[in-house]
Amino acid sequence: MAHNSPAAVVDPRSGYCATTATFISKRQPVPLPPNTSIDITTFISARPHLNNTAFIDAATGNTLSYSAVWAAVESLSFSLSSMGVKKGHVVLILSPNSIFFPIVCLSVMSLGALITTTNPLNTKHEIAKQVADSKPILAFTTRELVPKLVDSGVPIVLIAEERVPSDLGGNPTVKIVGTLDELVKAEPGEKPRVKERVGQNDAAALLYSSGTTGASKGVISSHRNMIAMVQTVINRFRLDEEGEAYRTFVCTVPMFHIYGLVAFATGLLAAGATVVVLSKFEMNDLLLAISKYKVSYFPLVPPILVALVNHADQIKKKYDLSSLRRILSGGAPLGKELIEGFAAKFPGVAILQGYGLTESTAIGASTDSLEESRKYGTAGMLSPSMEAKIVDPDSGRALGVNQTGELWLRGPSVMKGYFNKPEATASTLTPDGWLKTGDLCYFDEDGFLFVVDRLKELIKYKGYQVPPAELEALLLTHPNIADAAVIPFPDKEVGQFPMAYVVRKAGSSLSENQVMDFVATEVAPYKRIRRVAFVDSIPKNASGKILRKDLIKIATSGSKL
């Protein structure tokens, strides 16, 4: 692999080009449609349907065939257009996972409008902030979640209702304009529909970043960004090479999250898969769904994987998981003990891992086989069509193999920018298209990416830098620790010192001193844990990332979790 210049040679082993100080993906590039005037919905609907069933509601058993999905998308987009939804408008969806979620998203995006999603667990105040920022002209939500939009002034369409319930229809504080069912079944009016031309560079989605290192910001993803992600999904899973029995995914990932939206609510339609949808996570319901619907692909976060390994014998006695072929893990790299423990308990099921951000449309790096995942601790190799740089955060100098710095990414999935925040966009995106991820990383000699820590989350102890993730990984090796998080605790004398939040394993009486002594024997003095709090669980966001800022706030306020 080489650039046009004879001197710009790419090392085939690491993917590193010394001339440009750039790492090039070793995977085959994903093709993008040559037609620039195509939207994500049209692109997906033109793909062949390998399975007849698109979505299954795990709770009710209700199904949606591919033909039913596309008929509903066409009808809803017509109704939305008749209601005045146009290119550039923003439409909000506030809903748990649902087989109707994709219909709303695909219909909105087909018109050139932007879909913005929000977490159903968010408070009314948090949702009001997003509404004030994104200014949606319409909202889709469920009857149960209507109170969170009270006083928002946004017209509401109810999901999963045949007609507007009488107790809501007369409520003066909310403006309910109909139901999804009514809009899908509405007869086309006499006025012809005028569909504006939508191109790949137009905005498609407005998803708010997790805000783990600052205030939440709206990330603008283009149709091109989403098509690139969909092509990566198709390329990664190659479902056209699988038999029909091995094309079923279970969706535990929230559809309001970038990965859930682009992969499970939209992208897997392009791959011809069947998606089993759970509205909420319950381990028993999840395992029953895998057993009942013969699920072959199971996305999860590391804590679920830990539970599967720790309770494998009981689980296998109660549930038939013989259909599983691949586990898709994200949120944090997996260690050797967990990977090998799972491989021993569930032989024949490969573990795949992934790394991505909302700003990169959930694309960055991945392991695509168990062999690749056995590069223990890695996030994987660069995704197709992706380039990367490792940049020294102090000098700005691009670094090489096995050197740690901030990861920069460039490729067709990198966002357009932050919504109405030009300064934040300018500080995150360079003029030549590089996304500054804020993650400290390095690439090894084989081209595998290793995430060391968040750049802004480094603990500064007497000027020394202490990566919390390193201490967390160490704590998780303790036989009596089920989960852990490490935060910087402010101190007048040393600046900050590492504090650990620890979840004991059932029946353990592990003490604070035992935790600190365990760490002290393994790390340099400046990295030692100097304070411990025991908790029932570690707070994490939808993608499995530790909500470190929440823990810092709790620790410094003196309150309890």
Automatic annotation (TrEMBL):
What GO terms are given for molecular function?
ATP binding; CoA-ligase activity
Give the transmembrane region(s).
90-115, 256-278
Keywords from UniProt, A to Z, are: ATP-binding, Ligase, Membrane, Nucleotide-binding, Transmembrane, Transmembrane helix
Q: Which InterPro entries match?
A: AMP-bd_C (IPR025110), AMP-bd_C_sf (IPR045851), AMP-binding_CS (IPR020845), AMP-dep_synth/lig_dom (IPR000873), ANL_N_sf (IPR042099)
Could you name the Gene Ontology cellular component terms for this entry? peroxisome
- Boundaries of each AMP-binding enzyme C-terminal domain copy? 470-545
Q: Which family does it belong to?
A: Belongs to the ATP-dependent AMP-binding enzyme family.
Return the PANTHER family for the record: LONG-CHAIN-FATTY-ACID--COA LIGASE (PTHR24096), PEROXISOMAL OPC-8:0-COA LIGASE 1 (PTHR24096:SF413)
Q: What is the name attached to this protein's record?
A: 4-coumarate--CoA ligase
Naturally occurring in which organism (per UniProt): Carnegiea gigantea
